[in-house]
From TrEMBL:
PANTHER family from the UniProt entry: GALACTURONOKINASE, MEVALONATE KINASE/GALACTOKINASE
A GO biological-process term: galactose metabolic process
Stretches assigned to the GHMP kinase C-terminal domain: 112-191
Record bears the keyword Metal-binding: yes
GO cellular component, one term: cytosol
One Pfam family of this chain: GHMP_kinases_C
Protein name according to UniProt: GHMP kinase C-terminal domain-containing protein
Entry's Gene Ontology molecular function annotations: ATP binding; kinase activity; metal ion binding
Record's keyword terms, sorted: ATP-binding, Carbohydrate metabolism, Kinase, Magnesium, Metal-binding, Nucleotide-binding, Transferase
């Protein structure tokens, strides 16, 4: 989905890669690993502050370029960002770097998906997760632990938070034939790190192995 134009485009996973799999099955599965965190952190560390900082970064960059557009980072041309990013203070610079590097990862990820290149796609997903921690500075201690455990799991190609990283779960793409092994590894390692949190999650919901489904569809009514 192009957020500027609200126009969708359909990018199909490489037919060549699909045809090389037994019985045409996709070569990957999706892991959902639950942290056990269900409540937001204090507002001072929350997502709303990050949104505010992105607006302030956009305001500074647009002002420096002479633009009177609304302070939204998608209104900032990437060339303007590269030319003017030196004016941003440390926090705003990190937020803007996350946004613009994430834009690049989306484009590269789209291309990797179309080629069926799961290795590159996984690396981009993991880089997104790392930027969320380092540049966007979100994610609780527990969620970061879970993310790092996923990266070490056998067969995992890439991992990141499923959302802002303050609660909920992390997700990963994993080689199909190693999905169960990876799930067992993640469950055991996270329980070792956070036994109290894990004890509150039903055993059959701690790490889920999911099959990829069809993409989003446009439903037309006659």
């Amino acid at each position: 989905m192009d957020c500027k134009t609200a126009s969708p485009s359909y990018v199909y996973f490489s037919e060549l890669s699909k045809s090389q799999q037994p019985q045409g099955r996709p070569p990957f599965k999706i892991l959902l690993a639950f942290s056990g965190l269900q409540h937001n952190l204090p507002k001072s560390r929350g997502y709303n502050m990050r949104v505010f900082e992105c607006k302030e970064a956009a305001r500074a960059l647009l002002c420096a370029s002479g633009s009177e557009d609304a302070p939204i980072l998608r209104k900032v041309d990437p060339g303007v960002y590269e030319a003017q990013k030196c004016i941003l203070d440390e926090n705003l610079a990190k937020r803007a770097e996350h946004y613009f590097s994430e834009m690049k990862r989306v484009v590269k990820g789209r291309e990797a998906w179309a080629r069926g290149d799961l290795q590159e796609l996984g690396q981009l997903i993991s880089a997104s997760g790392r930027s969320s921690i380092v540049n966007y500075e979100c994610g609780s201690k527990e969620m970061i632990q879970l993310y790092e455990i996923l990266l070490k799991a056998p067969g995992v190609l890439g991992a990141r938070f499923s959302g802002a990283g303050f609660r909920g779960c992390c997700l990963a793409i994993v080689e199909s034939d190693r999905a169960e092994e990876a799930a067992a590894y993640v469950g055991a390692e996270y329980e070792r790190s956070q036994p109290e949190l894990v004890s509150k999650i039903p055993a059959d919901r701690r790490v889920l192995v999911c099959e990829p489904g069809d993409s989003a569809q446009v439903i037309l009514q006659s």
